[in-house]
Amino acid sequence: MDKDLKKVVVLLAHPNMENSQANKTLFDVIKDMEEVAVFNLYEMPSEDLLNMDAWSRIISHATVLIYQFPFYWMSAPSLLKQWQDRIFTYLAKTPAVAGKPLLVATTTGSEFDAYRSGGRNRFTVDELLRPYQAGAVHAGMVWQTPFVVYGMGTPEAEKNIAQAADLYKKRVSAFISKEASEDNW
């Protein structure tokens, strides 16, 4: 796993990537970027997924951490939670993550309007992602405005994915171009 010492570490948590539309497209636009290491948690052997020493080196070397996942039942798929419980809990108490940006990149089945106080889902995505934000703040990380691709279960899905792919690549590129010592993320 040490070959993956890159500036941007993406933890991809999707249990069915071969049937994914949005997350696969987002993955495809960043996977070959020179300073990006993508770890698909669902394709990793459990000994790597929970290897504290390897993750400590990877995250210590990185300048930004991205959680990428489909929004399942208002949260991430379970392996990201397992990684957080076993690895991030430890790293949050170390300088490995302090001061680094944390970005959540997620996709939703519902359209944007469903995620508001009067909408079908009753809450905004920002509200539903508060546990991730609280974890980042607790660990001394810099919470980033989430990157959300809405409407994967709507007729607008293809259009939304196409627009999001370019924006995601630009957002990740911006992290790469920033200096590691920069405090203004």
Radius of gyration: 16 Å
The CATH architecture would be 3-Layer(aba) Sandwich
Given as residue ranges, the uncertain stretches (5+ residues, pLDDT < 50) are 179-185
Helix/strand/pairing category: alpha/beta
Order of H and E elements: EHEHHEHEHHEEH
GO molecular function, one term: NAD(P)H dehydrogenase (quinone) activity
Domain Flavodoxin-like fold: 6-171
Protein name: Glutathione-regulated potassium-efflux system ancillary protein KefG
Pfam family, one: Flavodoxin_2
List the keywords:
185 residues; Rossmann fold; 7 helices; 38% helix; alpha/beta; disordered C terminus
Description:
This protein is of the alpha/beta class and 185 residues long. The protein has helices spanning 22-30, 46-49, 52-61, 78-91, 125-128, 130-138, 157-177, and strands at 8-12, 36-40, 64-70, 101-107, 142-143, 147-149. It has a single domain, classed as Flavodoxin domain (Rossmann fold, 3-Layer(aba) Sandwich), CATH 3.40.50. The chain has seven helices and six strands; from the N terminus they run E-H-E-H-H-E-H-E-H-H-E-E-H. Strands 1, 2, 3, 4, 5 and 6 form a six-stranded parallel beta sheet that branches. Helix 3 (52-61) crosses helix 4.
